Amino acid sequence: MNPILLTQSQARKIILHAGGLSKKAQFGKGREAVYKVIDHLGYVQLDTNYVVERAHHHTIAARVPGYKLEWLEELQTDGRIFEFFTSDSGYLPMHNFRFSLPVKEGFVARRKALTQAEINLMNKVLDRIAREGPLMVKDFENDRMEASSGWWDWRPSKIALERLYLDGRLMTTRKKDFQKVYDLPINLIPDDIDTTMPTPEEFARHVILRSLKAHGIAYAKEIAWRARYIKNNVVKKELEKMAEEGEIYKVTVEGLKTTAPIYMLPGYKNKKIELAGDAFVLSPFDPLNVFRHRLRDFFDFDYQIECFVPEPKRKYGYFSLPILVGDTFVARMDSKADRKQGTLIIHNLHFEPGKLTKPMIEKVSDAIRDFAGFNRCSGITIKKSNDKAALKAIRSVLF
To answer: What does the alpha-carbon distance between residue 348 and residue 101 come to, in Å, rounded to a whole number?
Structure first.
């Protein structure tokens, strides 16, 4: 079958619809909409950065107006979602639990040989949790023999807990202060959940379908990357098989200077997608923003989260958030939630090249106001911008 030819506009519409950003409340509102978002995306990345509200809450709030932070905890308590490390740490729908097992097996296979002392400590930790119930790192004695040398210099009991979490003998939930609570899987996995190990081919097909459902169209290398921790990564081989069988389609996109294979689901071949033109303030860890090359290729937007960039080399700010209107990234907003003062401080509101219409200004202003409310901030301060006219217009709407 010959590849399907897409225009750049068609590609963007497919990507945004698949990502739940074709309009506000694409999945509805309320707690059930939160589950629908996680189930559709297959994975919502978790991050600890607290300059503004954490990434997993931010990703959901962008898609579920009126989102309440406690809904995520309630869904986990109800056994409908769970936390695990796939390509990164995040929340997944519980009915996909069996597809976390090859990743856990992969972590064990890649792990260097453990000493007998390390094995003994892991067994002691496991035994305590089995006897006493869910425990946190602070519940274990400080067993560090030397002073800490840095952020990732964990003490032995913390290392033991994380190893048991990654190999699947423990699972985690979170307290309201974001601290991990470790527990046995038997206490967290509902009885009706399938826990059988999938074959490498089953796992690969799951990753392929999950990726295309969430991203609309995707490069083979992106899909394979999401399975990089497993043994026998056969994603690229299964992609070819599925394309030959018509389960997925190969596509080409006008204007792309690449011969790398790109795929999409058949459902998008004749699907008519209308974008509402709504504005979204997005997390750096939003599924739309994870791969920098995708933003360049499909949206002509060169984006990099600069908290990982040395301060002298930053162009836009420490935690710059992309602002999307319709199918165009119009700005990036370096902001911080001053929770004591109840103020969203926008250090830098940088506008991309291109004309902002009055309706777009109003939508961006509304998105900023909603984002402030999501961060429990009643006030907004904008310190600087590269476009004085746009800033004046936004201030006139906001203030």
So the answer is: 43
